[in-house]
Amino acid sequence: MKRIGMGLVGPGFIAPHHIDAVRRLGDVDVVAIAGSSQASAEKKAREYKVERAYGDYQALIADPDVHVIHNTTPNYLHLAVNLAALKAGKHVISDKPLAMNSVEAKQLRDAAVASGVGHVVTFNYRGNPLVQQARGMIARGEAGRLSFVHGCYLQDYLTRPEAYTWRLDPAKAGPSNVLGDIGSHWCDLAEHVSGMKIVSVLAELTTVVPTRYAAEVSAEAFSKQAGGERRAVAITSEDLATVLLRFENGAKGCFSVGQVLPGHKNDLQLELNGAGCSLKWKQEEQNELWIGRHDQANSVMMKDPGLVSEDVRGYVHLPGGHQEGWADAFTNLIRDAYTWIAAGGRADAKPAMLPTFEDGYRSACVIDAILQSHAAGGAWKDVQYAAATPRD
Predict the structure, then answer these.
(1) pLDDT, tens only, 318-354
(2) Is the CA virtual torsion 43, 44, 45, 49 positive or negative?
(3) CA end-to-end span of the chain, whole Å?
(4) Radius of gyration of the chain (CA)
(5) Where are the beta strands (DSSP E) in 169-239?
(6) Main-chain phi, psi angles of 174, to 5 degrees
(7) Positive/negative CA dihedral, 181, 182, 187, 192
(8) Overall pTM surpassing 0.85 (yes/no)
(9) CB hemisphere CA count around 194 (13 angstroms)
(10) What is the pLDDT of residues 194-229, one digit of tens each?
(11) Are 68 and 5 in contact (CB under 8 A)?
(12) 244 φ, ψ to 5°?
């Protein structure tokens, strides 16, 4: 059986996790890396032990041994790189957000559907076994009719004014910072687990740190900030946001996101309240699912292959009490992606958990509506979303 070859464009913070997940599959070769220059690509290729390095992403896409493109570039390059890969008939696994805005995301969604290849967005928190357990319980009616979906995604890596990354530059990240970066994760997770779409939003956005001091070389996210000379940068995108939600079945919701909140490292939480029970999952305690009940004792379900439902067992790789983490959930998503790719990207072969460019487009539509709500002074705005035209 012919092995699948993978090439990665944009070897930054998230790149080694893509490479690690692919290598854990055992039947996919990491063929090449493309960077912003030949020198930088070669440096990263040595670091990640990859044989080929390209200073231009077009050259990597043209490599006949590369069948799948992993796009981990900054947001402003997502459209060009993804479109070039789709045009070349390559399968694409793109980091989130899918594009700078919903217009670009729709263009990518439409191109991906028309291409007939596999197209995946790395909403990787779907890969957690207990996320899938909660989704299944809701789909089977065990939670009853949902009335409230709420939570947060809080971080602290931008707390200090000296912290600065490309994500704070609208020319590279788009008009949103925290919503596009981590709010997109929360909204996708809420829709995926609940089985309901967000139809309208009301938002308040804040820039807690309006002036930052950037070093000559911008640091990657979560890394130690460089010293030396700095320049003042006026920040226009949000680093804190609170949003009210309305879902399609009449359920209500809310969430907060921020990256200037000391002590919150990667604090993603989702709670869903139904007539039958409540379900709560915390990313920092991801091996536990809290189940709240009205007429009996609350309980905590542990990640255990003997306890989860049958359709979730494929996402659990260790016995109960053996903790699985962020990288394992990411690998679950990548494993599903390559299962789909091995089947040629056929629509009927896509694993149910797997987020596609369709989901990336939906997420962009929700974020755009949130930005519009804030710009209108905190008015309710409907999520404007156009369904895909099925392939012939």
Answers:
(1) 999 999 999 999 999 999 999 999 999 999 999 999 9
(2) positive
(3) 29
(4) 21
(5) 198-206, 211-215, 230-234
(6) 100, 180
(7) positive
(8) yes
(9) 31
(10) 999 999 999 999 999 999 999 976 555 655 555 678
(11) yes
(12) -90, 145
- Sorted by sequence, the CB contacts under 8 Å of residue 47 that are 6+ apart come out as none
Strand order of the β-sheet with 68-71 is 52-54, 28-34, 4-9, 68-71, 91-94, 119-121
Distance (Å, rounded) from C-alpha 61 to C-alpha 243? Answer: 39
By C-alpha distance, which of 383, 391, 367, 360 is closest to 107? 360
**Pairing of β 267-274 and β 278-282:** antiparallel
Residue whose tokens read 């679950």 = 332
> In angstroms, rounded to a whole number, what is the distance separating the alpha carbons of residues 151 and 247?
15
**CA–CA separation, 31 vs 26, rounded Å?**
14
Cα–Cα dist 294/57, whole Å: 55
Strands 288-292 and 278-282, bridge-based pairing: antiparallel
- Among residues 110, 196, 241, 227, the alpha carbon closest in space to that of 383 is found at 196
Catalogue all structural domains in the chain, each as residue range(s) with its CATH number. Answer: 4-124 (3.40.50.720), 126-322+364-372 (3.30.360.10)
Q: Are 374 and 200 in contact (CB under 8 A)?
A: no
